[in-house]
Design a protein that fits this description.
282 residues, 8 helices, 11 strands, chorismate mutase activity, single chain, D-Maltodextrin-Binding Protein, domain 2, Alpha-Beta Plaits, 4-stranded antiparallel β-sheet, 5-stranded mixed β-sheet, elongated, alpha/beta
């Protein structure tokens, strides 16, 4: 005589399992906080300023994407981890997020809250220039500005030695219906050893900029361009991946008829993940 299959667990039993997991998660977060407290004592981070570690954050987010499975949306997991990282960074060295809201205040606010939560102070500015200047005057604050368009060449402020630099581009995980889809650069001061340099960003000033030159560059790199009246040309923010180089960009500009006036490295960031509609990661 065959045995009956075991009865499925009751709702009460399943809820007890959930309660135990919730308690475990909370205890692990508190344990993480204890370790951060010890880390502060070892590093004395609050005395030296910024605690941002872009390379470590990028590594953590890659591992998160690679191990994620199940019904919980990846966006939810990404935001939870972003808020955990940002909050514990804030605990180590308090900072504010200065955001340029000139393009879209709701979209920028979504980006700030998705990546930094509600503990980190949020300061709105009406131009990228103002947000960058606020960070330049701070000890360890961070700015968020549009990564795809601009009215002014705010990145010129990043050229000098000791100036803040681009340290990240968000969202790190990109898909068509991302809840915080606004592409933004994060700008702050961090030690060179903490940077991730998979994509380098350059400030390039040229004369002779026109539509033909722009078309020549578009297959090679992501570019933000604004008029540069000082040179009767354009100020470019060029994002260069490992597939090309700034020398190739310079050569393409010259071949297309433009003159390169200056080139300066103004930051770097990690290569992003793109999630197709099917949910597969690439």
């Amino acid at each position: 005589m065959s045995q009956r299959p075991p009865a499925p667990p009751s709702l009460q039993e399943l809820r007890k399992e959930i309660d135990a997991i919730d308690e475990g998660m909370h205890r692990l977060l508190m344990q993480r906080g204890d370790i951060i407290d010890r880390l502060i004592q070892v590093k004395q981070t609050q005395e030296v300023g910024s605690a941002f570690r872009p390379a470590r954050e990028a590594s953590m987010m890659r591992e998160l994407v690679q191990r994620h499975r199940g019904i919980l949306p990846l966006d939810t997991v990404e935001s939870i981890w972003r808020v955990i990282i940002s909050t514990f960074t804030y605990v180590q060295a308090p900072f504010s997020v200065h955001a340029d809201v000139s393009a879209s205040e709701p979209a920028m606010r979504d980006s700030v809250r998705f990546n930094f939560g509600f503990t980190v102070p949020y300061v709105a500015h009406f131009s990228a220039q103002a947000a960058v200047e606020a960070v330049a005057k701070s000890k360890g604050d961070l700015a968020l500005v549009s990564a795809t368009s601009s009215r002014t060449p705010w990145w010129l402020e990043l050229e000098a030695n000791g100036a803040p630099k681009i340290i990240a581009r968000m969202p790190f995980i990109e898909r068509a219906d991302h809840p915080a889809a606004l592409p933004v650069f994060a700008i702050s001061r961090v030690p060179d050893s903490a940077l991730v340099t998979e994509v380098e960003t350059f400030s390039v000033r040229v004369s002779g900029w026109n539509a033909e030159v722009a078309r020549a560059l578009s297959p090679l790199a992501e570019i933000v361009a604004v008029p540069d009246t000082a040179f009767d040309g354009a100020a470019l923010l060029v994002s260069v991946t490992s597939a090309t180089s700034i020398d190739k960009i310079r050569a393409a500009l010259i071949e297309a008829g433009a003159s390169v006036r200056s080139v300066a490295l103004v930051g770097s960031h990690a290569t992003r993940y793109t999630v197709p509609p099917t949910g597969a990661k690439s």
